[in-house]
Amino acid sequence: MSTNKRRRRVDYELIEELIEPGSRVLDLGCGDGRLLEELVKRKQVIGRGVEIDEKHVLESLNRGLAVYHGDLLEGLSFYGEGTFDTVILSQTLQQTLEPRRVLREMLRVGRRAVISFPNFGHWSTRGQLVFWGRMPRTRHLPYQWYDTPNVHLLTIKDFRQFAEREDLHILHEIFLSGSGARITAVFENLRAVTAIFQLERARK
Amino acid sequence: MAYTDADNVGLVETKYFTFAEPPNKMPLDSGLKLGPITLAYETYGTLSPERDNAVLIVHALSGDSHVAGYNSPDDAKPGWWDLMIGPGKPIDTDRYFVICSNIIAGCKGSTGPSSPNPANGKPYGPDFPIVTIGDMVRAQSHLVTHLGVARLLSVIGGSMGGMQALEWAIGYPDRVRSLICIASAARLSAQGIAFDAVGRQAIMRDPNWRDGWYYNAEPPTAGLSVARMVAHITYLSDESMKGKFGRRLQERATYGYDFKAEFEVESYLEYQGQVFTKRFDANSYLYITKAMDYFDPAQRYGEGSLLRAFERLRPETRALVLSFTSDWLFPTAQSKEIVKAMKANGLPTAFLEIPSSYGHDAFLLPSPQQESAIGGFLRSTLQAGRELSPSISTASASSAADEGARP
Question: Would the pTM count as exceeding 0.90?
Fold first, then answer.
């Protein structure tokens, strides 16, 4: 699981909108720590990070963040139920080996989860597969099939179905075009390059 | 390297602080008392007017108070962690007031078994009381107070120094804003105790040890050098020994079919053992390894639970825990136990496992990752620590509490 070189500021700003000031936030795969640092500075959150890449851990450390160097599931295991208000997983879900376990763990230690991922249902990826008969490569999915860290690619529809099966309640959906502009939920599974979901466990 | 280098603290003087004069001897964990106590120490940099920039370096088994710079222009080498401490270095003496003292039971200027016993003026020898990591830290706390520091910005140590850093945080939670615990453990493993036991046996089975009464006779250098040889193996890794020596022979092209030290690794260890006997006291070695073996804050402060022991820490106490991949004496899993118990308490704890082939010794060697981690952690702790990483559990309460607690 490599990390979020692809994370873009626009992604951050929209995630920031979903975070309450002063809340407790765990950023999984926090990368260089920029998002967490912004949240700490602008929203006064209490932040913790988990990151597997040693260089990114050092960058986060140098931003003064309490970051754990290790695997996501291991990093999650240290925390008790409901320790956080929000657990963030930005552009990393598709790289996890066990996405279902990660999501369950996120909603064990956190009240809410914010998840962003590249939408494999976008017309350009579909087109490349249909017309060229080859695994799609885009600006957001730049890897070859043999070196991609994205082992669990998914579409917006896939995620919604997954959320339903996992008994999760979707609080917010945000869709972004290739240029990073926010787009409406019309044919979003074709038009959106990035999707951001905010979820919580469905109340029984 | 020279004392005139720009990033060096230059010529430094070892100073001495004596306290616990009878009848006010310092109580020890064993129930006995010790006094007077002298600590050898060095300081670099300047204490800020707010007195908030003091950093205490706590040394490992064979370390001393001379951690940076040169005691004399003729010194071949600077202090033992000079690569980390100095102007512009990670522990930046332009920013921080750095303190390092020799532990009690040591033999580098602080009171230990080779110091004169006030009862008769002769060396304590085996009459020196058993001391613990807690006792070492208690003695340091007197020195820190003497230097006018109520609260340390950080306590930093590797190996047994990491144990002292943990003890500081748990035993003196109001006096520690942060700690950096490197290649260490919250208790020594059975394997670690086993190696210490072999080292002690090597010393005690040397006829020259004479039950510890050897100060006016030939000292047990054979035993002490074997102890050091065994320990030295535990500080390296299989990989680093392979790279450094392999199976190469020393001064021979073929096997000699005798018992001389013919493999390079043999003569290296023998040399290390011999050199050590010139700078270290055998009794000190016994006392200090025993203190390491006894260290167990979970048992002492938490009824067996490290998580409960860390409940004593102030919730805003920041911690940085570092381990090295090839360290098998203090493996990463032991560092993670510390991190886990701290995180379970909501403490802002950072952890990094640094790739290295140098084994336990790695923390004393140049490492860009270690330097960046320590430098960044200290800077942020001094500048914005409280704003960036307050505790999870008492976030709203702690900022208010902080205001009142500031000296």
Answer: yes
